[in-house]
Amino acid sequence: MKYRMNRDRSVLAVAALAAVSLLPAQTGLPKGVRQGASVEGINEYLLDNGLRVLLFPDESKPKVTVNVTYMVGSRHEGYGETGMAHLLEHLLFKGTHNNPGLMKQLTERGAQFNGSTSFDRTNYFETLNATDDNLKWAIEMEADRMVNSKVAKSDLDTEMTVVRNEFEAGENSPFAVLMKRVMAAAFDWHNYGNTPIGARSDIEKVPIENLQAFYRRYYQPDNAMVVVAGKFDPAKALALIAASFGAIPRPERKLPATHTDEPTQDGERTVTVKRVGDAQYVMCLYHIPAGTHPDYAPLEVLGRVLADSPTGRLYKALVDNKKAASIMGGEFQNAEPGVSLFGAQVGKGQSLEEARRTLLATIESVIKEPPTAEEVERGKTKLLKQIELNMTDSQQIGIELSEWASMADWRMLFIHRDRLKQVKPEDVLRVAKAYFKEDNRTTGVFIPTEKPDRAEIPPTPDVTALARDYKGGAAVQAGEAFDPAPKNVESRTIRKTLSNGMKLVMLPKKTRGATVLAEVTLRYGDEKSLFGRETESELAWAMLMRGTTKHSRQQLRDEFDRLKTRVGVGGGVPLGSANLETVRANLAPALRLVAEVLREPAFAESEFESLKQSSLTQIEARRRDPQSVAMTELRRHLNPYPPGDVRAVRTPDEEVEEIRKTALAGARKFHQDFFGGSPSAVMTVVGDFDPAEISRLAEELFGGWKTPAKVERIKQPYRKIEAANKSFEIPDKPNALFAAGMNLELDDEHPDYPALVLANHMFGANPASRLWTRMREKEGWTYGVRSSIRAGTKENGGGFLTYAILAPENMPKLEAGFQEELKKAIDSGFGEEEFRKAKTSWLERQQVARAQDETLLGVLSGNAYWDRTMAWQEDLEKKVAALTLDQVNAAFRKYVTPASISIFKAGSFAKAAATAAKQ
Fold first, then answer.
1. Averaged confidence pLDDT in the chain
2. Quick one: which of 305, 259, 296 has its CA closest to 458?
3. pLDDT value at position 448?
4. Which of these, 446, 394, 439, 343, lies nearest to 227 by C-alpha position?
5. Which residue has the higher pLDDT, 274 or 579?
6. Given this model, what pLDDT does residue 393 score?
7. Does residue 405 fall inside a structural domain?
8. Which of 221, 490, 714, 846 could form a disulfide with 51 if both were Cys (CB 3.0 to 4.6 A apart)?
């Protein structure tokens, strides 16, 4: 379960469906339920015990999300109890007496689930196949979890170490550590100065009685909101909620109100963090009003003016001028006054002090050089584009409503959207003058002054009055009820071949908001022609979105924003792809622009130098990251190909050397030599579109485009590798990585493949697996542990991999535990009940995955390349359904042999050993 620190509305903002006014009281509602507000397809109901309910039906996808939000987060914690809300979130997955082991139950139902804790709220959500049984189970389970969770000392003893492991993982990140220190320095008294993960000592020492009291106080119906979104019958859902949640009495206690007001900052504050590492960072923040205040909308636009890439003022001042490798910026939109935060990653050879001066000067020069109308409009367009595109995902809306409800009222989602539309340049200048002041800033030094220029933060608005008569906007087009079964997907799929042999795969279907996804995947070259050209290929792909012969980098960004299109372009050897998400009306112009990006890149020298610097800085940041080191070294061990071979795994030193010696001409020549269509290339489209129109357009854009080079699949057959056990010492890293793997002689057509897939599902592939149950749930050694099985396609090169993130001092215990679980699975096998539940869980997960258009896009594209249809997926699921326990146990024993498994570990083991020796 993740805790949320920052909610960037440019990424997370969403909206909903049809606008209607407040509905009159309806007849036929369950007893104890009354109608509340209704805005753009979201209907609110209020229960007598104080519970708020939002219903958001969406017939277009066969899934349903149940999200329960409690209006309690780290803001409500007391002294010595930091991190308690997040720790309690973990404990509630341990279950109740009626519903023990909730992670296992959710996994067995094929659910996608999680929980998260923020400053102002905690939420729990699960997305399942849309059946009456699943909906009934989820609602009844959440009602049971609300008041009957065990919150036991025995569970705290193991889960505390899991949460501490999550805390340590954050301590590995220089950026996260610096942000935590800057936040702490910025707030004198308010709990927003404490990140939700909490202090290590509080995590370790909080009494179980405090957690139990916290649970009983805040986990009650009058402090909660239930959202049901997706494909369901609203009447049935409301009846289930009334029967289960409605039976919980309204508590007699009165919720305590938080009353700490952060005093006005009276001078710049500074903080310095010194730790082992490579990349440098500089950061600053300014206090701003609550997320519900009218000033927040122009502040968010101002954030885009400053921190967008590549047109933002910070990018131009720092990255373009080679004073930093990258920049970042955003706002904390909270229930009470929060902050705007900006920063930059600075490379080894760059001056941190010069970057700091430039960062601060650029931000505060906005007052003397006001934002232009073009800058403001660009920022608004970007933010509103994200909102409109996110309108189409009921699952995301169902979860996102947690954020807005925690700011006092869920209707703030729409009010904020409307405010963004009204922002003018003078509004942006006004908030810059009001809040972006030196005396309201927290950075790196303290400077006394005789005349402080303080920023007065206005009080939090009365949202009840603000939202009382809010009506909302227009409706979003609803989608069809789509069956993601392989047979139905196949019956709806259209396949064509373009003049150059390129494959075109189309799955037209009605979607919410008329959204559509498309992807163009290019495969090129062969083992010989691609030798030694991996870096050229990566840089060539990375340059595509940095400008074409017709559009500059910024013009491309602006045009995609105007077209309400998300686009991603990237690749290497031997393939790359361009994908987009847009709406039906804009698909054709968006595809034309993507074709221009792929076929007519500008390869500007200035952009190339900026790209190289950014790439080098990213590599430097990975050098001392335990996860990167352990996984890189394990992959190199299992794939011992010579330098230059496209299958070889490069070291950071090799990557740096290749980037430094690669010239712009090399990247440009790679594009000339290899880019183009072929029978190995695939264009895939899924969503709301006209197949005939897109067929013609695909032929026009790509049919005459041919790769100049021979295209031949690069094979990676099975190679037997001797087992090794290596440890890499990385100082000053509180978190370590355990990685274990071996090559398998296996392809995905082999009769043993389905059995091995199911065996791995039980061993370590999900939160009900043996590895997870032992290492996280029982022992609390790790925050995350997983295993995976990979099989080759049309060749026998497969693999088995396990990884775990943990504290360095737990490495000996975890390694021994892994060996014990492996031996147990091989010697004793899996059990009949375990096997039965795993089979159901795995099959359910396939359906849930195919309910996502992104998944369908990838499946159809892969099938086209391998000359397969959805019958292959259907056949695999039939084979899994027909498996016997003996077949599964035999396959695991046959392929996963402990003597062949290599183990690679990275972390600060010397420090952990020294600490243990002192104890």
1. 92
2. 296
3. 33
4. 394
5. 579
6. 84
7. no
8. 221
Alpha-carbon span 578 to 569, nearest angstrom: 4
What is the DSSP annotation of 156-176?
A: HHHHHHHHHHHHHHHHT-HHH
Distances (CA, A) of 351 to 281, 313, 620: 11, 19, 16
Vertex 63 angle, CA 493 and 28, to 5°: 130
Which residues are CB-contacts of 488 (< 8 A; sequence separation ≥ 6)?
482
Tens-place pLDDT, residues 421-444: 999 999 999 999 999 999 999 994
Are 441 and 360 spatial neighbours (Cβ–Cβ below 8 Å)? yes
- Per residue in 319-330, pLDDT (tens digit) is 999 999 999 999
- Single out the residue of 328, 423, 437, 446 nearest to residue 375, CA to CA: 423
| CA atoms in the 13 A half-sphere facing the CB of 137 | 17
- pLDDT, residue 912, reads 77
pLDDT at 445: 34
Residues 746 and 867 in one domain: yes
Residue-wise pLDDT tens digits, 215-232? 999 999 999 999 999 999
ω before 574 within 30° of 0 (cis)? Answer: yes
Average pLDDT over residues 550-561: 96
CA-wise closest residue to 406 among 189, 546, 196 = 196
Alpha helices by DSSP H, listed for 675-764, are 691-698, 753-763
pLDDT in tens, 749-759: 999 999 999 99
Calpha distance 96→181 (Å, rounded): 37
Give the integer Cα–Cα distance in Å for 390 and 581: 11
The last residue of one of the domains, among 244, 278, 301, is 244
Write the DSSP assignment of 235-284 as a string of letters. Answer: HHHHHHHHHHTTTSPPPSS-PPPP-PPPPPP-S-EE-----S-S-EEEEE
Of 703, 733, 757, the domain-final residue: 703
Same domain, yes or no: 660 and 540: yes
Task: Tell me the C-alpha distance between 77 and 92, whole Å.
Answer: 17
pLDDT of residue 24: 35
Asked if residue 680 has pLDDT above 70, the reply is yes
Helices (H), 764-884: 770-772, 811-827, 832-850, 853-865, 871-881
| Owning domain of residue 748 | 725-918
Distance from C-alpha of 118 to C-alpha of 849, rounded to nearest angstrom: 27
715 within some domain: no
φ and ψ at residue 452, rounded to 5 degrees:
-65, 140
Residue 12 maps to a domain: no
Same domain, 742 and 650: no
Averaged pLDDT for residues 477-496: 94
Q: Could you tell me if 419 and 548 lie in one domain?
A: no
Distance CA 155, CA 110 (A): 24
Residues 286 and 233 in one domain: no
**CB 278 within 8 Å of CB 620:** yes
Number of domains in the chain: 4
Q: How far is the C-alpha of 144 from the C-alpha of 102, rounded, in Å?
A: 11
Neighbours of 815 (CB within 10 A): 18
CATH assignment at residue 173: 3.30.830.10
195 shares its domain with 297: no
683 and 741 belong to one structural domain: no
In a domain, 252, yes or no: no
Instruction: Identify the helix (H) or strand (E) that includes residue 495.
Output: strand 494-497
Q: Please give the C-alpha separations between residue 12 and each of 43, 383, 563, 687, 916, in angstroms, as whole numbers.
A: 21, 10, 19, 22, 43
Closest C-alpha to 315, from 541, 535, 553, 539: 553
Q: Per this entry, what is the length of the chain?
A: 919
Do 444 and 525 belong together in one domain? Answer: no
Residue 146's pLDDT band (boundaries 50, 70, 90)? very high
488 token code pair: 């139905």
Which tens digit of pLDDT belongs to each residue from 613-629?
A: 999 999 988 998 999 99
* CB burial readout 605-639, b (16+ within 10 A) else e: eebbebbbbbbbbebbbebbbbbbbbbbbbbebbb
